[in-house]
Amino acid sequence: MNIQTRIKSILGLLFLFFAGNAALATDYYFHPKLGNDANSGLSKNQAFQSLDRVKSLNLQAGDRILLAGGQTFYGSLEIIGFKGEKNKPLVISSFSDQNTSVLKPAKIDAKGYLNGVLIENSSFVRVQHLEITAEGYGEMSPIGQMRVGVLILANKKGGVKGVTLDSLIISRVFFEEKGIQRSVEEVKSANGTQKYGWGIRVMNQSDSEMIEDIEILNSQISDLSHTGIKLTGNTDQNIRRITIRGNTVHRTGGPGIQMSGVKFVYVADNEVMYSGSNDDGRKWGRGSGLWTWSSSMVLIEKNKFMYANGPGDSAGAHIDFNCDNIVMQYNFSAYNAGGFAEILGNNYNCAYRYNISVNDGHRVKGQNGAFQEGKIFWLSGYQGGNKERKGPVNSYFYNNTIYVSEEIVAKIAIDNRSKGVLIANNIFHIPGKTELVAGDQYKPDDESNRELEDVFFKNNLFVKNGLWPENALIQSEDGIVGDAQFRVPGGLNVEDYIPQNDALVQSGVKVPFLTGDEFGLIDGLQLSKDILGNPILDNPGIGAIQVFPQMAEKKND
Question: Given CB 3.0 to 4.6 Å as the disulfide criterion, which of 71, 348, 363, 515 pairs with 454?
Fold first, then answer.
C-alpha cells in the first residue's frame, strides 16, 4: 500500500469515526422525585429532576427528553431556538420507571405558568405521550393574558418547521382559580376580552417567518376555558401545511378547533363535542365545533361536530369571512345550537357536500340569552362591521342529508349579496315548520329585493310540499317530494340515515360548475365515494349516502 492510499484510508476511518459519533443521539432522563439536577441525566438512575434543566442542555438532532411515566412535573418545558433534522427530530416523551409493559404518560402541571410545553422558533420536534394540565395561579403571580397547554410559536427571531404533537392528554387549562363567574356580556364579545386557557395554540407573530408542516394527532383535549386547538397566522397566511387528525376535543369553553391566516390545512377524523361549554364560570360559553377565518385551501372531512353551545355562533362547523376553497365533506353534525351550514362574506368557492346534519340550528333568538337565531342554512355577506357586504361567491351545497325533528323550527337566511349558489341533490327531511330569517348581520339596503345571480337550485328531495320558504330570494326548481325513509330517524350514527326508499333517492344530477367559475372545488366537483365509503356511480343519487341496487338486498339484514 503506497503512502497516498494509506493517508486516504486513515482519513476515511477518521471521517466515519466522527460522523458516527455525531450521529449518536442522547437520551436525557427526568424524574421529579428520584432525580437531581446535578446528575448527568444520561440514565434512569442519574435522572435530572426539574423541567427547567432542559434549558441548559446542548440538544442535538435525534436527542430525546424522557419524563418518568406516571409522575407529575411542576413547571413548563421550553424548547427555544432548536434546529433538528427531518429524519432525526428531538423527541419529548415519557418512559416507564417500573417493570411494566404499560406506559403511563408523565404529567406536566403548569399551574401558574404560561405554557405546559413551549416550542418556539424551533424545527423538527416531536412531543408525544404526555399529560398536561394548568389550572389557576398557584404560587406565581398572574402574568400574561393566556395560558396554553402546548404553544407552538414563531416570532421575528425565527420560524417553526416540522413539529408533531401526538397522543397528548390536555385538560383543565384555566388562567384563573376556581370560583370566577364571567359577566353575561363577556360571551357577546367577538372572541372574549379576558384571560383564558387554551389547549393547543399555533401562533405566528412574525411578518417574515413561516410556521410549516405541523401535525396535531390522536390527542385528547377537554375542559378548558377557551379554544381546544387554535391556529393564528396573518393575512399572508403564514401558517401552512397543517394536519389535525384523530383528536377528541370535548367541553371547551370556546370553539373546538379554530384557524385564522392559514393555508393548506387538513382536518380529519376528529370528534368535537360540547364546544361553547358553560359548566364552569371561567369558560367563555360560546363556540362552533370548528370555524375558519381568512384561510385558504382547507379540507375538513370525516369529523363529528356535536352539541355546540352558545347564544351566538356555535354551529357545527362554519366558514367565517375572507376565506377561499374551504370544503366540508363527509362530516356528521348534530344538535349544534347555531346551525349546520354557514358561509359568511368575501368567501369564494366554499362547499358543504356529503355531510349529515341532525337537529342542528335549534337555538331561538331571545331565549336563554340567545342573540342570534340558529339556522340550518345561512349565506351571509358580512365581512366586518365597517365594510360593505360582499358575497359569498360560488357556494356549493350538494348531496347533504338534513334531518330536523318536527318540534324544531328550521331557519334559513340568505344575503342578497350572495353570488353563485348551487343547491343540489340534498335531502331536506324537515317535517315541522321552516322560516326565513334576516341573518344576524344583515342590513337591508335599497336593493334588498334584488334577485341573486348564478343560481343552480335543482333536484333536492323535500319530505313535504312548501318546505322551502316562499319569500326566500332563491327558489327550488324541479324539486322532489317524498320520504327517504331513514333507518333510524333522529339517530346519532351515519348508518341511521341510509334511505330505505331506494327508488326515491337514486336520481341525482351531475353537479356542474357555477357560471363563471373556472376553479370549482379542491378535489374536484365529483367525488368517487359517499360518506360511508360506498362508490358513487355515474348517477350520484340524492343525499349523503349513495343507494344502488346491491344495497336494496342488504337493507333488511
Answer: 515
- In sequence order, what E strands does 269-373 have? 271-273, 290-293, 296-301, 304-306, 317-319, 324-329, 332-334, 339-343, 348-353, 356-358
Which element (helix H / strand E) includes 420? strand 419-424
Report which of 68, 59, 224 is spatially closest to residue 146, judged by C-alpha positions: 224
Express each pLDDT in 184-201 by its tens digit: 999 999 899 999 999 999
CA angle 515, 516, 522 (to 5 degrees): 95
Residues in the chain: 557
Give the C-alpha separation, 487 to 498, whole Å: 6
Q: What pLDDT score was predicted for residue 24?
A: 84
Residue written as grid cell 405546559: 116
The fraction of the chain above a pLDDT of 70, given in percent, is 91
Confidence bin at 385 (pLDDT 50/70/90): confident
Beta bridge partners of 273: 250, 306
State pLDDT tens for residues 10-51. Answer: 445 444 444 444 458 999 999 999 999 999 999 999 999 999
CA 59-105-275 angle, 5° bins = 105
Other C-beta atoms lying within 10 Å of the C-beta of residue 1? 7
Beta bridge partners of 134: 173
Residue 386's pLDDT band, with cuts at 50, 70 and 90, is confident
Q: Assess contact for 343 and 321: CB atoms under 8 A.
A: no
**CA max distance for the chain:** 98
CA within 13 Å, CB half, 24: 6
pLDDT of residue 271: 98
State the sign of the Cα–Cα–Cα–Cα dihedral 517, 521, 527, 533.
negative
Cα 304 from Cα 247, distance rounded (Å)? 11
Ramachandran area for residue 75 (φ above 0: left; ψ -120 to 50: alpha; else beta): left
- The amino acid present at 356, given as its one-letter code, is I
Report the C-alpha gap between 468 and 454 in whole angstroms: 19
SS (H, E, C) 233-254: CCCCCCEEEEEEECCEEEEECC
Helix (H, G, I), strand (E, B) or coil at 551: helix
Cell, residue 357: 346534519
User: Tens digit of pLDDT for each residue in 295-347?
Assistant: 999 999 999 999 999 999 999 999 999 999 999 999 999 999 999 999 999 99
Collapsing DSSP to helix, strand or coil, 4 comes out as: helix
DSSP H stretches of helix in 131-233? none
For residues 430, 434, 440, 442, the Cα torsion angle rounded to the nearest 10 degrees is: 120
Residue type, 246: G
Bridge partners (DSSP) listed for residue 197: 147
In the block, residue with C-alpha cell 372545488: 521
Q: What are phi and psi of 22, to 5 degrees?
A: -65, -30
Integer-rounded Cα Rg, in Å, for the chain is 27
